[in-house]
Amino acid sequence: MESKAPTVHIRALLIEDDLDAARLVRRRLEWSPRAKFEVGHETTFSGALEKLEKEAWDVVILDLGLPDIEGLSTVAHASIVTRSLPVVILTSNADDGLAIQSVRAGFEDFLIKDEQDGATLVRAVLHAIERHAGVGAAEPATERHEARA
Protein backbone atom coordinates (compact mmCIF):
# COMPACT_ATOMS: atom_id res chain seq x y z
CA MET A 1 0.00 0.00 0.00
CA GLU A 2 1.37 3.38 -1.01
CA SER A 3 1.55 6.09 1.66
CA LYS A 4 0.45 9.60 0.83
CA ALA A 5 2.50 12.67 1.65
CA PRO A 6 0.83 14.87 4.24
CA THR A 7 -1.25 17.68 2.78
CA VAL A 8 -1.46 19.83 5.92
CA HIS A 9 1.42 22.27 6.38
CA ILE A 10 1.92 23.55 9.93
CA ARG A 11 4.35 26.21 11.14
CA ALA A 12 5.13 25.50 14.79
CA LEU A 13 7.21 27.78 17.00
CA LEU A 14 8.98 25.80 19.70
CA ILE A 15 10.06 27.81 22.74
CA GLU A 16 12.54 25.57 24.56
CA ASP A 17 15.91 26.39 26.13
CA ASP A 18 17.16 22.78 26.34
CA LEU A 19 18.74 22.18 22.93
CA ASP A 20 18.58 18.38 23.21
CA ALA A 21 14.88 18.50 24.08
CA ALA A 22 14.30 20.95 21.21
CA ARG A 23 16.02 18.61 18.73
CA LEU A 24 13.87 15.70 19.92
CA VAL A 25 10.62 17.69 19.60
CA ARG A 26 11.63 18.97 16.16
CA ARG A 27 12.45 15.44 14.99
CA ARG A 28 9.17 14.06 16.33
CA LEU A 29 7.15 16.71 14.54
CA GLU A 30 9.08 16.70 11.26
CA TRP A 31 8.91 12.92 10.95
CA SER A 32 5.14 12.88 11.32
CA PRO A 33 3.19 11.25 8.49
CA ARG A 34 0.06 13.21 9.54
CA ALA A 35 1.27 16.71 8.64
CA LYS A 36 4.25 18.55 7.22
CA PHE A 37 5.73 20.50 10.10
CA GLU A 38 8.04 23.46 9.72
CA VAL A 39 9.52 24.03 13.17
CA GLY A 40 11.02 27.32 14.28
CA HIS A 41 12.91 27.51 17.56
CA GLU A 42 13.62 30.12 20.22
CA THR A 43 15.38 29.59 23.54
CA THR A 44 13.85 32.58 25.37
CA PHE A 45 10.36 33.93 25.81
CA SER A 46 11.42 37.44 24.76
CA GLY A 47 13.02 36.07 21.57
CA ALA A 48 9.85 34.13 20.83
CA LEU A 49 7.67 37.23 21.22
CA GLU A 50 9.83 39.04 18.65
CA LYS A 51 9.56 36.09 16.27
CA LEU A 52 5.79 35.93 16.76
CA GLU A 53 5.46 39.58 15.78
CA LYS A 54 7.57 39.20 12.63
CA GLU A 55 6.43 35.83 11.28
CA ALA A 56 3.21 33.86 10.89
CA TRP A 57 2.80 30.68 12.97
CA ASP A 58 0.04 28.13 13.34
CA VAL A 59 0.87 26.90 16.85
CA VAL A 60 3.27 27.55 19.72
CA ILE A 61 4.85 24.78 21.78
CA LEU A 62 6.02 26.29 25.06
CA ASP A 63 8.30 25.05 27.82
CA LEU A 64 7.56 26.64 31.20
CA GLY A 65 11.17 26.71 32.41
CA LEU A 66 12.91 29.35 30.32
CA PRO A 67 15.91 31.51 31.22
CA ASP A 68 13.94 34.77 31.13
CA ILE A 69 10.60 33.57 32.57
CA GLU A 70 9.43 30.52 34.50
CA GLY A 71 6.39 28.63 35.78
CA LEU A 72 3.31 30.63 36.70
CA SER A 73 4.92 33.80 35.38
CA THR A 74 5.20 32.14 31.96
CA VAL A 75 1.52 31.23 32.08
CA ALA A 76 0.55 34.81 32.91
CA HIS A 77 2.71 36.38 30.21
CA ALA A 78 2.02 33.81 27.51
CA SER A 79 -1.74 34.11 27.89
CA ILE A 80 -1.42 37.18 25.62
CA VAL A 81 -0.33 34.81 22.84
CA THR A 82 -3.20 32.36 23.41
CA ARG A 83 -5.72 34.90 22.16
CA SER A 84 -4.41 34.63 18.59
CA LEU A 85 -2.65 31.25 18.48
CA PRO A 86 -3.08 27.83 20.04
CA VAL A 87 -0.38 27.19 22.63
CA VAL A 88 0.59 23.73 23.82
CA ILE A 89 2.67 23.56 26.98
CA LEU A 90 5.39 20.90 26.90
CA THR A 91 7.23 20.85 30.20
CA SER A 92 8.99 18.61 32.67
CA ASN A 93 6.87 20.11 35.48
CA ALA A 94 4.18 17.54 36.31
CA ASP A 95 2.30 19.85 38.71
CA ASP A 96 -1.44 19.13 38.29
CA GLY A 97 -2.38 22.51 39.74
CA LEU A 98 -0.24 24.29 37.18
CA ALA A 99 -1.77 22.15 34.43
CA ILE A 100 -5.29 23.13 35.47
CA GLN A 101 -4.35 26.79 35.80
CA SER A 102 -2.75 26.70 32.35
CA VAL A 103 -5.82 25.27 30.65
CA ARG A 104 -8.03 27.77 32.48
CA ALA A 105 -5.73 30.56 31.21
CA GLY A 106 -6.44 29.50 27.61
CA PHE A 107 -3.68 27.06 26.75
CA GLU A 108 -4.88 24.21 24.58
CA ASP A 109 -2.96 21.40 26.28
CA PHE A 110 -0.44 20.67 29.02
CA LEU A 111 1.97 17.85 28.20
CA ILE A 112 4.75 16.34 30.29
CA LYS A 113 7.97 15.86 28.28
CA ASP A 114 8.82 12.40 29.61
CA GLU A 115 5.31 11.11 28.91
CA GLN A 116 5.19 11.96 25.19
CA ASP A 117 6.11 10.01 22.11
CA GLY A 118 6.01 11.43 18.59
CA ALA A 119 2.47 10.32 17.78
CA THR A 120 1.06 11.73 21.03
CA LEU A 121 2.82 15.05 20.54
CA VAL A 122 1.63 15.39 16.94
CA ARG A 123 -1.93 14.47 17.89
CA ALA A 124 -1.93 17.04 20.74
CA VAL A 125 -0.64 19.78 18.41
CA LEU A 126 -3.16 18.99 15.66
CA HIS A 127 -6.02 18.84 18.14
CA ALA A 128 -4.91 22.13 19.71
CA ILE A 129 -5.06 23.81 16.32
CA GLU A 130 -8.54 22.42 15.67
CA ARG A 131 -9.84 23.40 19.13
CA HIS A 132 -8.48 26.91 18.74
CA ALA A 133 -10.00 27.18 15.26
CA GLY A 134 -13.34 26.26 16.82
CA VAL A 135 -13.29 29.47 18.85
CA GLY A 136 -13.05 31.69 15.78
CA ALA A 137 -9.35 31.81 14.98
CA ALA A 138 -9.47 29.54 11.93
CA GLU A 139 -7.22 31.26 9.43
CA PRO A 140 -4.05 29.95 7.78
CA ALA A 141 -0.81 31.39 9.14
CA THR A 142 0.02 33.20 5.92
CA GLU A 143 -3.34 34.99 5.91
CA ARG A 144 -2.93 36.04 9.57
CA HIS A 145 0.53 37.39 8.83
CA GLU A 146 -0.59 39.29 5.72
CA ALA A 147 -3.45 40.85 7.68
CA ARG A 148 -0.97 42.19 10.27
CA ALA A 149 1.41 43.63 7.66
Characterization of the model:
The chain is of the alpha/beta class. It has a single domain, classed as 3-Layer(aba) Sandwich (Rossmann fold). 47% of the residues lie in helices and 21% in strands. The protein is built from 6 helices and 7 strands, in the order E-H-E-H-E-E-E-H-E-H-E-H-H. It has helices at residues 19-30, 45-54, 72-82, 96-104, 118-137, 141-148; strands at residues 9-15, 36-42, 59-62, 65-66, 69-70, 87-91, 109-112. The strands form 2 sheets. Strands 2-1-3-6-7 form a 5-stranded parallel sheet, sandwiched between helices. Strands 4-5 form a two-stranded antiparallel sheet. Helix 1 (19-30) packs across helix 5 (118-137). The chain is globular and about 40 Å long.
Give the key terms.
149 residues; alpha/beta; Rossmann fold; 5-stranded parallel β-sheet; two-stranded antiparallel sheet; 6 helices; 21% strand; disordered C terminus
